[in-house]
Write a structure and sequence with these properties.
Structural class: alpha+beta
Shape: globular
């Protein structure tokens, strides 16, 4: 995988996988709406450099290491899901370590808190209509 050949999946696989998740986890988030500004801030913390290709599209200008972010799912006191994303760093290209704080202790954990539901695309092929199971 590289900037010019990203890892994508066939749409039918995505439809099958999301339907399986949503049917098996009816009370959990289906998806998360992620602000691009937060992703850019995460990339900046990682020191990711970009270049523009001949079509005007951004490409990662890597130093031999493919940059990655890691995502965690958590729930707050109100049981709402949060997608937490952190940048990573690597010295050997094998072990990617989380970047979770600055040297002064400032958090670098980005909280993308717009879960679906309620911020869903009702027309998406990946948003399946499942019946939510409520426990008594």
């Amino acid at each position: 995988m590289s900037a010019t050949t990203p890892l994508t999946r066939p749409l039918q696989d995505a439809i099958t996988w999301t339907k399986t998740w949503q049917n098996n986890h009816k009370n959990l988030a289906k998806a998360f709406l992620i602000p691009v500004d937060d992703m850019i801030a995460c990339f900046n913390e990682m020191g990711v450099k970009f270049k523009t290709d001949s079509n005007g599209k951004l490409q990662v200008d890597s130093d031999g290491h493919e940059p990655y972010v890691r995502s965690y799912v958590g729930t707050d006191g109100n049981r709402e899901e949060h997608l937490l994303i952190v940048g990573t760093t690597t010295k050997d290209g094998i072990q990617y370590d989380d970047i979770v704080e600055t040297p002064t202790g400032e958090s670098l954990v980005y909280d993308f808190t717009k879960p679906c539901p309620s911020d869903c695309d009702p027309k998406s092929k990946l948003n399946h209509k499942v019946t939510i199971a409520f426990s008594k």
